[in-house]
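== Fold encoding ==
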Amino acid sequence: NEKGEIVRDELESIVVDIPEKVEQTLTEWKVLEAEIKEEYPELILQSDTEE
């Protein structure tokens, strides 16, 4: 079944992509977080004291 093969190949490539995308998102978030800490230190202090 050719259609089934194509679908399976596409699913496999998506599944392989997921860890890379997660890694990329985490990296981007860390960069963003660092920028926020630099520009708005008062926000970080407030959220830390609430814990």
Q: What stands out?
A: The longest helix spans residues 2-39.
